[in-house]
Amino acid sequence: MTITGLKTNSAIEAEILETLSHSPYACSALKQLSGGFSNFTYRGHTLNPLPDGSTSVCIKHGEEYFAEWKHVTASTIRCDAEQAIIQQVTQTHLQRVIYGDVSVRVPRLYHYFPQRNIQVGEDVNDSKTLPDSLQSLSLSSAVSIGQGLGRWLASFHTWARSQAITDLPTVIKDNTQLFDMLTGHIYHIISEECKNKEIGQYCKDRLLEVAEEGVGVVHGDFTNRNVLIQTSHKKDGPHVHLAIVDWEACRYGDQSWDIANFIASVYVPHRAYSVEVADPMLQAFIQGYGILGDEQVFRVAIQTGMYIFLWSWYARGQLTEEKAEDLIQLARCLLIKGCERDREWVKHSFLGCLLDGAAAGNEN
């Protein structure tokens, strides 16, 4: 669809500054932050300190097109859904949880301007994304981070399953556009890379089957790049602080997608770039998440394969031909073996500890 009325970045910034000017979050200047795919994200320097002493805020703004793909229309329901889920999660114990040396939290949302699709939230200062920190992490920190993220995600999913679908905000239930676009794109990539449309259709049919377990609200984009990391040198309390951000793809559905998304985002750096701490982090994440049923294990295998196809497609040009082909072959095996419910293959793959948990669960 042709987009009309595209705004310049300066026009968007002026609109944000004007909107905030009559609020406690009035800013003197904005700095656009990198990494935002669907929304425009800024750090705003406030004219006056906030009650907690902060002098900066994180601002997200959505248009009816993607920030990075301006030629593609996008419903701003994603902005309504994101603020709704953040408001809900930050009112629970999940807002900040401590697991040994690691704390995991969801940054607070201060205010939402629905008419302008502008969110004003907590600025996570002096942080890096998890991918930017992987190379510098010690083995013990990587394991602690993986364990903490796995436990937090399991707790979030458990809480989400406890929420009756009738009680969920409509905007979360209706926020399916990003997921539909993503999976459609992945199916296309699979068909192209495998030179076989039947494989993509097979996976699509398999995943369209109604999940019998693990259904509830999902983060929707639970990858390493949406985990911010801060380190603390204080003697008391956690040494590593993690923040889960970018909830605009949240929706109601199969929670296996969150698990698979994180697995793929961590395993690709290990496989393609030889990041040594990535695999121990991944294994700790799986162990931290806990027991999965057999059916969910195979769904995770399929979905991990789909995400690895996506990662290999985006990383094209950054990888050698040999590395790119290795990822594609791995992704193809995950798809096929997951669809075939090949327990032995999965057991001896990097996802083997998923089945360790499933076996333990089936013995009870």
Automatic annotation (TrEMBL):
One Pfam entry for this protein is APH
Which keywords belong to this entry?
Kinase, Transferase
In this protein, which residues make up the domain named Aminoglycoside phosphotransferase? Answer: 136-293
Q: Which GO molecular-function terms appear in the entry?
A: kinase activity
Q: Which InterPro entries does this chain map to?
A: Aminoglycoside_PTrfase, Kinase-like_dom_sf
What SUPFAM superfamilies has UniProt attached to this entry?
Answer: Protein kinase-like (PK-like) (SSF56112)
Q: What is this protein called?
A: Kinase-like domain-containing protein
Report the source organism. Answer: Aspergillus bertholletiae
Q: Lineage of this protein's species?
A: Eukaryota, Fungi, Dikarya, Ascomycota, Pezizomycotina
